[in-house]
Amino acid sequence: MDLITLHGIEKTYQMGDISVPVLKGISLAIRQGELIALTGSSGSGKSTLMNILGCLDRPTAGEYWLDGQETSKLSSDERALLRNRKLGFVFQSFNLLARTSAIENVAMPLAYSAESLSEREARGRAAEMLGRVGLADRLGHLPSQLSGGQQQRVAIARALINHPPVLFADEPTGNLDSRTSEEVLQMFEQLNSEDGITIIMVTHDPKVAGHAKRVIRIEDGLIQGDGAVADSSPETPGGAA
Ligand SMILES: Nc1ncnc2c1ncn2[C@@H]1O[C@H](COP(=O)(O)OP(=O)(O)O)[C@@H](O)[C@H]1O
Ligand SMILES: [Mg+2]
Hints:
31% helix, binds adenosine-5'-diphosphate, Rossmann fold, globular, 7 helices
């Protein structure tokens, strides 16, 4: 079964009397365990589509099935619940709480999850997740005491703390230099291959898209390309989907 199915998704923004059509009929299916780059030029509608996929916004028309549930008509409270249970988010600007340690940033979403964990269990789980992203020795550091790449890894650990099946990342390396970007992208590849997490990255950077197994290209609100990526790294044959 597909994890995500879109049927004829449209999004039109209303600016006073003017309708601004942004998504013009997007249909696609995504299976569990895919590593996808959603690309396209600036203004093509990537973030708008990502906001709908992430249940942050509703489409104007069309159906969005997520893990067997049709979501396009859910209330904002119902969407919030779904986001908390099924979706993780990573943003270009990391969005960490500044005066809060790495471990507390990562533990934060546990307070809103269905399970009620003790303080100690929550810290234990957050520490484990930080270990998973290579930051076992940075638990008490504040964001300002971490490099950009380390901050983004804290954000990834926080996004995954409730074990969502899907991770969305909107321009996740937009604020990172190329070496640190590589490090974060390798983290995504590892989480995808080892834990089977479905990852959807939004990017306008072909180098970032090169780390995906499938690239979906959107232009002017429509899908203009969708296909598996040939593995370009000569030393790792057989990596393509
Ligand atoms: N809230 C909004 N209200 C009106 N127009 C919007 C809104 N959000 C985005 N748009 C318009 O939709 C188009 C696509 O934007 P966006 O999805 O952010 O593109 P991308 O992420 O690919 O750069 C742009 O022309 C933008 O001006
Ligand atoms: Mg965008």
